[in-house]
Amino acid sequence: MKKEPMTVLFILLNILIFLVVDFTGGSENTVHMIECGAAYPPLILENGEVYRLFTCMFLHFGIYHIANNMLVLFVLGQRLEPVVGKLKFVLIYLLGGLGGNIFSIAMEMKKSEYAVSAGASGAIFAVMGAMIYVVIRHRGKIQDLSVRQMMIMAGFSLYFGFTSTGVDNAAHVGGMVCGFILAALLYHPRKSSGRSMWKEAPESGSFSA
Asked: Which of 60, 65, 138, 172 is catalytic?
């Protein structure tokens, strides 16, 4: 809580909302999920229920969905938040997630194929995109992460999404791109005597999730 308060807050908030939704009607009940604020393009575009672009980020379809998302958020959040700060981390998470959802709806409109969607993955991919930018700014390595490790992680995450069914890949791609852009706009590391203030990890360090 002291080192990464916003990461912990987002995880706890997602879990709390999941439990409430699951006990009041089922987190895998599509109708109930729509009632709780899941995204559905016709309701957003025709009824003006724009709030769903935000509320859907805190809803999950089943225990596996939320467990996977919260694990990735924990791994990335505890590395990104201490570097960029609490406020910028919140902006990257929320605005990146919104950007991913907007891109997803744009793709669905283009195909005229609408689906009910929910999940924090768009926001989490925004954190991933921001982390890639931060690592690049720190000459290819920060803490126990390198650009190569981040690109492999991002590549595998996108690959599993595109090879799985029922996954909103447009939100993933849109979130990652938005996160990268937001980090470029918000994160400007200070330097002292030509050297980065952030301590680099030894070359032998490795990352696992």
From this structure: 172
- Is 172 among the residues known to form the active site? yes
Looking at residue 194, the DSSP 8-state letter turns out to be T
Catalytic residue among 104, 121, 138, 146: 121
Instruction: Report the chain (209 residues): mean pLDDT per 10 consecutive residues.
Output: 88 96 93 94 92 95 92 89 93 96 89 86 92 80 59 60 62 91 88 44 39
In the block, which residue shows the tokens 């709390």?
16
- Of 131, 130, 128, nearest to 172 (Cα)? 128
Residues 87, 77, 63, 96, CA torsion sign? positive
- Is the overall model pTM greater than 0.85, yes or no? no
Q: Pull the structure tokens for residue 153.
A: 């992680």
Task: Based on the residue annotation, tell me whether 121 is a catalytic residue of this protein.
Answer: yes
| Tokens 């998470």, located at residue | 93
Q: Do the beta carbons of residue 144 and residue 205 sit within 8 Å? A: yes
Quick one: which of 74, 69, 71 has its CA closest to 58?
69
Segment holding 80, helix H or strand E: helix 62-84
Of 94, 100, 87, the closest CA to residue 187 belongs to 87
